[in-house]
Amino acid sequence: MNELKKRFPEGFLWGGATAANQIEGGYLEGGKGLNTPDVLPGGKVRLQVLKDIGFDFELHPEKYTYPNHEAIDFYNRYKEDIALFAEMGFKVFRLSISWSRIFPKGNETVPNEEGLAFYDSVFDELHKYNIEPVVTISHYETPLYLVKEYGGWRSRELVAFFERYVTVLFNRYKHKVKYWMTFNEINSGLEMPINGLGFAIQEENDRYQPTFQAFHHQFVASARAVQLCHEIIPDAQIGCMIVYLPTYAGDCNPENVLYALKEEQLFNYFCGDVQVRGEYPTFIKRYWREHGIKLETQEGDLELIKENTVDYIAFSYYMSRTEKKDKTDKDVISGNIIGGIKNPFLKASEWGWEIDPIGLQISLNQLYDRYKKPLFIVENGLGAIDKVEEDGTINDDYRIDYLREHIKAMGEAIEDGVELIGYTPWGCIDLISASTGEMSKRYGFIYVDKHDDGSGILERKKKKSFFWYKNVIATNGEKL
User: Fold this and answer.
1) pLDDT at 245
2) What is the active site of this protein (predicted)?
3) pLDDT band at 2 (very low <50, low <70, confident <90, very high)
4) What is the model's pLDDT at position 4?
């Protein structure tokens, strides 16, 4: 019998996570081109836009605001922010590179030097404090030119453009970045292709074919990125990144258990199986038959995918999902992004996201049992409304409670034998919400004085959770 691992091993990667389009701002500075988040409106209308049919990818300033354009101005304030991360004791900082900062249109042959130099400066600043960058190569953004001229990832041509992009990144930053991920929450394209796949569904009855064809192109691009990373930076680690929601059956009716299983296979395991096991799973082939999907592949695609699997599995965990086969509109809960029915055993956040720490232990066990590769939780957190008291303090005990219970669940999974290498809570500094385009949905240990109406002076303030998380890191998770 294998000896159980000690809880939170030495060298565990504590830190925090962000994305370029949600923190940087400077959307036209430094030669950057427009990308998909630049045309997504702020406010709760964003979620509707993400799920609507026929989104036009145009700016409509007469109707909408665009908070990502300024975000929290990390582009100009990164030194201040990194100093705060260092004060908390971060070992790693997860960030993404904006593709359109490096190739403004996406299809150029020569990269934008000003964009490359910006990330050089960010990485140098992180290393000054002995913080390792964990870099997502594409985090919910595609250069807008590639969307409009090529149809996003529906086009095979994006594979070559992405290969050029990652080749530049690996050669430029090979001495500065050890941890890479290819596509953020790649499986979310099943629900919101605008974010990850760079196109909008034009007709509901034409949803399946372009979505799975775009996935194939991303799988090929990801495998090529893995191959290039291993060639150019042999000591680096490169992973995939998925959204993971353990899926419970609403009751023990076998029909509901089978329905929940099929939902979980499609959403949780389809993309992981391709990127980790190196092949399309058997269950997806029946799904394709039933939806009339005929995948177009080129010679060598499947071999490339098979031979270039990822080194680790990164994933986001915010909630679980409960399902049953025959559900009515009244059964479906609106808060959980992926839907499902109400779980009577769980409470929910102010945005309706069900809170399930035990589900994280379940998720870690399920993923490790299936893949036997190192796991990295690169997103987890509580979006909430924070109040600044008259004395300037922000007492976010609710966030501390949320994170404490999830860290306990991580510890239990490690005791179960799961190989967990790190934890970067989402939105370690307040940022623009990806799903709702709001600042009021705050995740951070650091408060940013920016509001949904665009007001605020961008001042940074330490929340109560800042000092709590600092102690968690200092004690390697022993003091919660």
Assistant:
1) 96
2) 379
3) very low
4) 54
Q: Which residues are catalytic?
A: 379
What string of DSSP letters covers 176-204? T--EEEEETTGGGGGT-HHHHTS---S-G
Q: How far apart are CA 168 and CA 179, in angstroms?
A: 16
Alpha carbons 77 and 367: distance in angstroms, whole number: 37
Residue 253 structure tokens: 């009716």
Q: Residue 325: how many CB atoms within 10 A of its CB? A: 15
**Residue 468 Cα to chain centre, angstroms:** 24
Rounded to 5 degrees, φ, ψ at 95 are -140, 170
3-state secondary structure string across 126-139: HHHCCCEEEEEEEC
Distance CA 222, CA 234 (A): 17
Pick from 73, 93, 89, 192: nearest CA to 133: 93
What does the alpha-carbon distance between residue 114 and residue 128 come to, in Å, rounded to a whole number?
Answer: 21
User: What does the pLDDT average to over 20-46?
Assistant: 96
Contact 271, 190 (CB under 8 A): no
Q: Are 26 and 38 in contact (CB under 8 A)?
A: no
Q: Can you tell me the distance from the alpha carbon of 46 to that of 69, in angstroms, rounded to the nearest whole number?
A: 15
Q: What pLDDT score does 23 carry?
A: 98
CA distance linking residue 237 with residue 376, whole number of Å: 12
Q: What is the DSSP letter of 394?
A: -
Q: What are the structural domain ranges in the chain?
A: 13-474
Q: Given this structure, which CATH class describes domain 13-474?
A: alpha beta
CA distance 453 to 472: 34
10 Å CB burial of residue 267 (0-12, 13-18, 19+) is: buried
Instruction: Report d(CA 389, CA 476) in Å as an integer.
Output: 30
